[in-house]
Amino acid sequence: MSERKVLNKYYPPDFDPSKIPKLKLPKDRQYVVRLMAPFNMRCKTCGEYIYKGKKFNARKETVQNESYLGLPIFRFYIKCTRCLAEITFKTDPENTDYTMEHGATRNFQAEKLLEEEEKRVQKEREDEELNNPMKVLENRTKDSKLEMEVLENLQELKDLNQRQAHVDFEAMLRQHRLSEEERQRQEQEEDERETAALVEESRKRRLLEDSDSEEDTTPTQPQPALRPNPTAILDEVTKRKAESWERSVAVMAGPVLLASPRLGAMKNGQAAGPAPQMPSTSSLSQLGVYSDSEDSSGSN
Questions:
Q1: Does the reported pTM lie above 0.90?
Q2: Where is this region: Disordered (predicted)?
Q3: How far apart are CA 108 and CA 115, in angstroms?
């Protein structure tokens, strides 16, 4: 495997590395590298936003006469994605960051500015304490007072947590469950009452409709109290049929039938005896049978 990859090279016994000519390159020569934008920036030429992490084909060079604790500082050249204007930034090993140099402005660097401000305040304080012992005592007093306030706030938070720890969560859940059951029971009772009210209302409406229908049909049916006597009705019908029969017979038979004592009595309104009970209600057949029976009784 090592022979196939040719990791080891053969050096002859008379090999002298000092005889190899050295390539002379300028110190400020540039290399083409592939990198990503280290921070958000905005182009000064066209106003295009370039976001952190966008990839570029950049040119890299070493900054001359600048270093930090022996570490070289590099400069990078990129082009705007819209107007192709040149943007340059360089490394900042002191703050472990990058510094915008030309062609764009850096955005969203509030955290960096805050850190720089804190460092500046700290440095000013150290300078004041270096030459003024009273300032040292004052700063220590302020620090101790601030520390006591922080401890008091922490103790209040602990007490609050302890008070909340004594709360019976099971009782609270039980009370909530009971209140929920009571609310459901009340809702169920209200539903039942509403249902009963609707049923009662529908029943009353049905009774009213039935009573109205009975009132409409009652006049067509004869009332039992006002019903006349059947015998009187029969007598009236018999009288009417007799009169019509008398007129018809008088026209058809002449004075022979009118001489009959039964017809004379009926004409004068005198009763000739009780009428026989006949099953048929036909006036003509009834009167004919009646006259025949009277004739037969008179002959006997």
A1: no
A2: 179-246, 266-300
A3: 13
User: Tens digit of pLDDT for each residue in 44-96?
Assistant: 999 999 999 999 999 999 998 899 999 999 999 999 999 999 999 999 999 88
Distance of CA 193 to the CA centre of its chain: 29
Residue 43, annotated as binding a ligand:
yes
80 in a known ligand binding site:
yes
Domain map (residue ranges) of the chain: 31-107, 114-164
Q: What CA–CA distance (Å, rounded) separates 19 from 22?
A: 9
CA distances for 86 relative to 103, 159, 241, 256, angstroms: 6, 61, 136, 154
Residue 219, φ and ψ in degrees, nearest 5: -60, -25
| pLDDT confidence bin for 233, thresholds 50/70/90 | low
Take residue 216 and report the two structure tokens written for it: 């409409």
Is 46 one of the annotated binding-site residues? yes
Q: Does the annotation place 102 within a ligand binding site?
A: no
